[in-house]
Structure formats: C-alpha cells, structure tokens
Write a structure and sequence with these properties.
Radius of gyration of chain B: 19 Å
Number of strands of chain B: 0
Low-confidence stretches of chain A: none
Strand content of chain B: under 5%
InterPro entries (chain A): Cyt_c/ubiquinol_Oxase_su3 (IPR024791), Cyt_c_oxidase-like_su3 (IPR000298), Cyt_c_oxidase_su3-like_sf (IPR035973), Cyt_c_oxidase_su3_a-hlx (IPR013833), Cyt_c_ubiqinol_oxidase_su3 (IPR014206), Ubiquinol_oxase_su3_dom (IPR033946)
Oligomer: heterodimer
Mean pLDDT of chain A: 91
Pfam family, one (chain A): COX3
Helix content of chain A: over 70%
Radius of gyration of chain A: 21 Å
Distance between the termini of chain B: 65 Å
Mean pLDDT of chain B: 86
Strand content of chain A: under 5%
Number of domains of chain A: 1
Largest sheet of chain A: none
Shape of chain B: flat
Family (chain A): Belongs to the cytochrome c oxidase subunit 3 family.
Main location (chain A): membrane
Protein name (chain A): Cytochrome bo(3) ubiquinol oxidase subunit 3
Order of helices and strands of chain A: HHHHHHH
Order of helices and strands of chain B: HHHH
Largest interface: A-B, 51 and 55 residues
CATH superfamily of chain A: Cytochrome c oxidase, subunit III, four-helix bundle
Shape of chain A: elongated
Structural class of chain A: mainly alpha
Chain lengths: 201, 110
C-alpha cells in the first residue's frame, strides 16, 4: 500500500469517527472557569478595601445590573432557539435567532460600558482602590469574553450565510459557540450574585 | 452515518420545552436574589450565604438545561471534567479566603 492510499484511508476513517472538537472546546471552557475562579478569589480578598474612596453601596446601580442580567439571560434562551433551528436544518431560523442574540449581547455590552464610564467619572476608576481594581479586572474580563463571543457570532453568521445549508461543520461550530455563550451567562450569575448584590448586602 | 454521530455525541437532545423550563427557573431565581437584596431582607454573612445558595442552584439549572451536561454515556467526560473544575474552583476560592482570613487574624490587621 503506497503512502498516499494509506493517508487517504486514514482520512476516510477519521470522517467516520465522532468529532472531539466540541469536547476539546469544553476543556478550554473548564480552564477559563479556573481563570474566573482566581479572579473571584481576588475579588473576595479585596471586598470592602475602598482605601477611603467611594464604596460599592454609593455607586452600584442595581436597576442597570438587573437589566444587564435580563439581557444576557434572554440571549441564552434565544441562542438555545438558534441551536434548535440548526438541528432542524432551518438556516433562516438560525440566522434570525443569532441576530436577536447578537442584539441582546450588544445591549448588555453597551450598558456595561456606560456603567464603567459612569464609575470612572465618579472617581471610582480601577486605580482608586483595591476593591475597584478587583472589580474592573473581574467584570472587565467577563465583558471582554462577551465581546469576543459577539465577534465569533458575527463571523459564524457570515459563514452560515455563505453556505447553502447547515452542514456538519457549521453545526459543530455553533455547538461550541453555544457552550461559550451559556458559560458566560453562568459566570454572570456569579458576578451579579457576589460582586453586585454581595457588595451591597 | 457521520452526521448522526455528530448529532448524538456532540449535540445533546435539545428541545424548546427544555430551554423554556430552564429560562423560567433562571428568571425566578434571579428575581429572588434581586428582590431579597433590594427589599433589605438579607444582611451580613447570612445574606451572602443565601445569595451563594441561590447562585449555586441557578448555576446547576443553567448547566443542566442550557449546557445539557448530564450523566449519560456521551456526556460522561464532560460531566467529570466539569465536576473536577468546580471542585478546583472552590479549592481556589475557599482556600484563598480561608488562608487570607487567618493571615489577617494572626497579623492583627483587622
């Protein structure tokens, strides 16, 4: 058997093996989870360390946080609908729900950036005290993840538009992005519970 | 054949009902957390414990209904790595808080 037939044979075999890329992406998310765990540990250390500056109670606006939470939570649901449309091979449904998800995610980011600029304007920038440093690092890292998720979502939507139908590859990529998106929502649960509500309690 | 493989092992069974149940549960838990704090029902360390309990339940809801992690055969490795990661995360967070609390106590910083 020549080398080329052998590799062709291998490639053929690989096609029939279940793909591990979703599990591989899942493993990445687990390491990301540990990154957030260390940021939460840091934040827990610096709770109430305001260095005489503005406190969380002075500046946190729970109404905005509630709206952000609602946006992100709803975007998880709409991403779920995109997944269901994908499994049912409804391409237009996938694109519609991805669009709604992107809008909700962008709304979340807008509110978060507004909040950040408001905090900095009030003199509670990341350099003000240990608390605000830890706050901006933790919430900012989450926001950065959401931003990257949005970029990925747009790229994937363009790829889906270009293909005539939802192929296996598109399904797999959508499955990875859905894990990422739902994971970010889970991190946000801990953010609003411990960072926002926990600092006010 | 390859296609059915993908839908079975990579993509767990997704249903509209499953997502809606998860969403409703998540909304109830979120509203409960926010209401307890804004209504002033929680205070001090006990308040934090209640928030932690509500958050933990909501994380489980999201993991089950949105991430579709379960103990079925195709999901076993996902579930195992998830349990391991959560354990390690708790070791990092609880361990840090515990050690630093003791440091502060011994150094009489607080």
């Amino acid at each position: 058997m020549s080398q080329s037939t052998l590799s062709a044979h291998h490639a053929h075999e690989h096609e029939h093996q279940p793909s591990h890329s979703v599990f591989g992406f899942w493993s990445y998310l687990m390491t990301d989870c540990l990154l957030f765990a260390s940021l939460f540990a840091t934040f827990a250390m610096f709770a109430n360390q305001y260095a005489g500056g503005p406190t969380a109670k002075d500046l946190f606006n729970l109404k905005d946080v509630a709206i952000e939470t609602g946006l992100l939570l709803t975007s998880s649901l709409t991403f779920g609908f995109a997944m269901i449309s994908a499994v049912r091979q409804k391409k237009s449904g996938v694109l519609l729900w991805l669009f709604v998800t992107a809008l909700l995610g962008a709304g979340f980011l807008c509110l978060e950036l507004q909040e950040f600029s408001h905090l900095v304007a009030e003199g509670a920038g990341p350099q003000r005290s240990a608390f605000w440093s830890a706050f901006f690092t933790l919430v900012g890292t989450h926001g950065l993840h959401v931003t990257l998720g949005l970029v990925w979502l747009v790229v994937l939507a363009v790829q889906i538009v270009k293909k005539p139908a939802m192929g296996e590859r598109e399904l797999r990529r959508l499955a990875c992005l859905s894990l990422f998106w739902h994971f970010l929502d889970i991190v946000w649960i801990c953010v609003f519970s411990f960072v926002y509500l926990g600092s006010i309690v | 054949m390859a296609h059915s493989h993908t839908t079975h092992s990579d993509m767990p069974h997704v249903t509209v009902g499953g997502y809606l149940i998860g969403f409703v549960l998540a909304v109830v838990l979120t509203v409960a957390s926010f209401w307890l704090v804004t209504a002033g029902k929680l205070s001090g360390e006990q308040g934090l414990v209640w928030l932690a309990v509500l958050a933990a339940v909501q994380v489980v809801v999201h993991v089950v209904f949105f991430l579709h992690v379960n103990t079925s055969k195709g999901q076993r490795w996902n579930a195992m790595s998830f349990v391991y990661t959560i354990t390690m995360s708790l070791v990092i967070i609880v361990g840090t808080v515990w050690v630093m609390h003791n440091v502060h106590m011994l150094m009489m910083a607080r």
